[in-house]
């Protein structure tokens, strides 16, 4: 039974790392292609000054999810962010790649909603402590 619990916690941690890695990589790439990303955003009518808050969101919130601190709030914010970016940047349904990107963002939002409902398991900073009466 103990081995099963460790495996569940490990799979939970791996899942949090995998879903968060998309945003960590995206935030990192935005830093090093700042000017072209601003131009791309402005092409969709999104002001370029929103890029820094986006980069911060895409780096800080995934780290919080991975380490298991403020996980549920971070997951809700990333779910909202994923849905918003799907609608703003990927709603050209005449382009097959945009449909795939739209659905990817919705899938990510769904994963974050699962995290927001269930929270992290034991491999997390905010792990609920279990007290035993003696």
What does this protein look like?
This protein is mainly α and 134 residues long. The protein has one domain (2-118). The chain has helices at 2-32, 34-43, 51-67, 71-89, 96-118. The longest helix is centred in the first third of the chain and has 31 residues, at 2-32. The mean pLDDT is 93.
Descriptors:
134 residues, mainly alpha
Topology:
Elements: H1 2-32, H2 34-43, H3 51-67, H4 71-89, H5 96-118
The average pLDDT score comes to 93
- Number of domains in the coordinates? 1
Terminal-residue CA separation? 24 Å
Strand content: under 5%
Percent of residues in helical segments? over 70%
Low-confidence segments, ≥5 residues, pLDDT <50?
Answer: none
Alpha-carbon Rg, integer? 17 Å
Continuous helix count: 5
Q: Class by helix and strand content?
A: mainly alpha
Tally of extended strands? 0
How do the SSEs run, as a string of H and E?
HHHHH
Largest sheet: none
How would the global form be characterised?
A: elongated
């Amino acid at each position: 039974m103990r081995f099963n619990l460790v495996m569940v916690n490990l799979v939970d941690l791996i899942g949090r790392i995998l879903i968060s890695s998309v945003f960590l990589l995206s935030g990192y790439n935005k830093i090093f292609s700042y000017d072209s990303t601003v131009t791309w955003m402005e092409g969709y009518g999104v002001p370029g000054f929103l890029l820094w808050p986006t980069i911060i969101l895409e780096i800080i919130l995934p780290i919080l999810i991975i380490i298991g601190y403020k996980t549920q709030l971070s997951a809700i914010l990333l779910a909202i962010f994923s849905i918003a970016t799907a609608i703003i940047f990927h709603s050209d349904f005449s382009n097959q790649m945009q449909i795939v990107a739209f659905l990817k963002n919705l899938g990510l939002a769904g994963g974050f909603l699962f995290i927001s409902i269930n929270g992290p398991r034991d491999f997390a900073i905010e792990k609920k402590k279990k007290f035993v009466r003696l």
